[in-house]
Amino acid sequence: MKFARQACLLSIAVCVPLLSFAEATRTVAHPKHTTTQKHVVGKKHIVNKNGSASVSAKSEKSVKRYVMVHGKRRLVVHNVAAAAAVIDKPSVGDTEGLNHSKDPLSLQSNVAYVVDQASSKVLFEKNPDVSLPIASITKLMTSLVVVEANQDMTEEIEVTTDDIDKEKGTGSRLKIGAKLSRADMLHIALMSSENRAASALGRYYVGGRSAFVAAMNAKAQQLGMMDTHYVDSNGLSSQNRASAKDLVKLVNAAYKHPVIRQYSTDSRYVVNPGGAPLEYGSSNKLVSNPAWEIGLQKTGFINEAGRCLVMQAMIEGRAVVMVFLDSKGKYSRLADAGRIKKWLETSKPQL
Description:
globular, disordered N terminus
């Protein structure tokens, strides 16, 4: 009898893999009368130290089970980490082996490229020629196309269902029907990486979204960005790619426009899309750090790209352009920027 009872309990543990053995023996008295419902109540994606995509501990899955206890059917709900249902995936840089690259500063980014803006001298480099997904760094090219098209910045743009993210399923604070000026859309797209704003900007271009993407690629070719390709205006697709060397060219071109410098480096901005005003914050906390003098910046993140950052900053009286791609960890790209800054301040490499 003891052996039979152990075998029964073992079968329960196997049939109910999301519960521990102790939980199975405690809550499921009669497995043959048990039914199971699974309901995902929320997913919040993060990047692990190895650059893989997973779900945060705050995100949970409710597992509902009906069990028979003393002859009565009862509902038992267990909250388990949803990460168990997500397969970790490495970034594109990881699959190409870039995560095995070493550098003197032990940066967490698979790619790093630092250039003196005035002389174009390379100050630091790590895999600068590899074309990788760039996520929302894409929006820097979006802003360049919008500004150089000389479109009316006061024109009102409306968010529609066409701006819903069907690529990654991300949400937005801009509801369908929200209306903002082209300037406000550009402002929050650059400063806070608002995806629907970037999508609407492309859609309201003369000729529509396809013409806008064509203009993005044409501008890249004009700038000599030969390892770059765009398929959308917000960067949600992993097919938006560029090398670090190309992105330095993009930063330099965008830096020529005061409006892009201002919008990308604001720390807070309030818009009125209809209804209650919305306050947006910068996606880069370094812009409000008094130790930094940042002239232009843009962040980006999707699982395939890892954490990305481009910046123009003054360090030791020198204008420097920094590019970090495929960084691991939420704050690692900012930490890498800090390591580069400290290195430049202490080593003072010559022009």
